Structure formats: structure tokens, C-alpha cells
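Researcher: Can you fold this with zinc ion in place?
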Amino acid sequence: MDSPIKCLGKWFDSSLSDKANVERIRSQLQEGLKQIDKSALPGKFKAWLFQNALLPRLMWPLMLYEIPTSSVECLERKISKHLRRWLGIPPSFTSIGLYGRSNQLQLPLSSLVEEFKYAKTRLVVTLKQSQDSSIRNAGIETRTGRKWSASQEVEQAEKRLQQKDIVGITAVGRQGLGSSKITLWSSAGNMERRRMVQDEVRAAEEEDRRAKAVAMGAQGAWTKWTTTERKLTWADIWSYEPLRIAFLLRSVYDLLPLASNLHRWGLQDHPKCQLCDTTGTMEHILSSCTTALTHGRYRWRHDSVLQELADKLERERTKKRPRQKPQMIQFVKDKRRLKN
Ligand SMILES: [Zn+2]
């Protein structure tokens, strides 16, 4: 009772339950977030630290211990709260915007719940496919709480994949017959099957997010856009000013302090544009206010960028550079020839 045992990377105490371990994961996360928060780095670096330092450390204990899905969701909410603050976006910003993989704007962040489900399904499939028959038949249960069951999810994914086999390869649009190749479930090996099941789980999670986004009024408006998707990489985020990231995210999810939003949030009496009598939506303010157009405001915005560029180019062009002497090559006479 005094000294818990660690075996194969897992802690066992006298209660033989994972309660204390779940508590340990929770405090590890809290401590990690606090440590990152205390570092005097800019917000974007803090987000990077979470994604590349804290999250990988949490994944192993999350896969190993019996932790209910609802607890993981609770942990994710804590993480999202910090991420929003670090990226400079309001608390009302949807988590779909942070973790979505098919959004118009995709951030390089992973959802803890999705990674947890991914890891748990890998565990289920690994045990199921084990070479050792005694492990296969031991009936090891991967418990994940009442809300979501890993074994059921794997079963469903397998059924979906088998059904895909029956449907076969379909050509989309103007694709020629047989131009696309997919791996068939029936002919796939163990490794491939594991990957396919995991991909299915990820796809199901993304589908869930998408369904929620469509149901959202303002913050899901991007689902109707026809523009191409944009993936933000860490390299992009490094080069952006903090305010630019915040503006970009707010503009995609319609959270900018525009007249229509201020009215919706109860901070202003009317939703009218400051210049004309039309409702001041994002589209109106950013590109289609007729008054702003006749005043030449949009052109001014455009021209100021050109002005800036022209200034820089002109300065470079007229800069006086010290003239460099052409470098001559010092030839050495061939002594042998001289002797001859
Ligand atoms: Zn207007």
C-alpha cells in the first residue's frame, strides 16, 4: 500500500483502479499548461509548445489508463481555453475552428479527444490482431466510459470498410474508370487494416465537427463558402504578427467587432453601417459598402500597399553603392615553359 508498483510503463496502486492515475494525468496537464503560461513567450509560441511538447507526453498515459471520454472532453475544454487566450481570440470562439481538419482555415493544432480516440482504437485493434492467441482470446476490455466505446467504434469502422469493399472503386466527376486506387479491406494486411480503421475514426470525428459547424449560425457561415481551403502552417504563424492571426481567425468565424455583431452582442442599439444605412455585416464592411467605395476607401487601402512597395523599390534603386573594383585573376607564369 505504501509503494505503488510501476510495470510496463503503468502504475499500479493498492486500489487496483486507475482513479489515482487519471488524477495524475489531470494534474500533469494543469501543471504543463501553467508552466507554458508562465513563460514570457508570445502566445503563438505557447500554442506551439502545447502542440509539440505537452500533447505527445499526455498521449501515452491517456492510451494506457482507463479514463472516461467525458473526462478527456473536460481536459480538452481546459486546453481550448488556454489556446484561445494565447491566439488572442474571444472565449466564444468555437473549438471546431481550433481543431477542424476540413475547415476553410485549418490550424496546425490537434484535438485531445480525437487523439485519445485514435490511440484507444489503436489499442483495441492491436489486441485484436495480436499474434499470440492467448492475448487475442483473453477478452481484454478497453474501457472508455459510457459516452463512447472504442470497441464499438472499431466494429462500426470495420463494417463501414467492408461496405466500401462491396461498393468498390467509384469514379468521381470526369475521372476515367480505374484512375483512382483504394486499398480494399478484404485484401489488406494487418498493418494496413489498423491504419484504415484509425483513419475511419478520424473521419467520423471530423464528420461530427462538420455537422455541428453547419448547425451554427454565424460561426459556421464558412461551410457555405466556395473559396479554396487554407492550411496555416507553423511557418506562417511564425511570420505573422499576433494581431494578424487574431484578425484572420476572427474574420473567418465572424467574430470581428462589426456593427451587426455589436448589435447581436447587445453593445449597440442598431446594426447599421457607420457610413450608410445598410446592415453592417462583415461582407459589407470589408468589401461592399457603396459609400466607402465612392469615397475611395477600398482603393486607398489597396494603393497604400502599392505606395509602400514603390517607396522601398525607389530607395533601393537610388541607393549609392560603393563601386567595387573588378576582381582580376593573378596569373602565374609557367616556369617549365620558360626553362625550355
Ligand atoms: Zn456601409
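Model: Folded with zinc ion in place. Residues 273, 275-276, 278, 284, 289, 291 surround zinc ion (CB under 6 Å).
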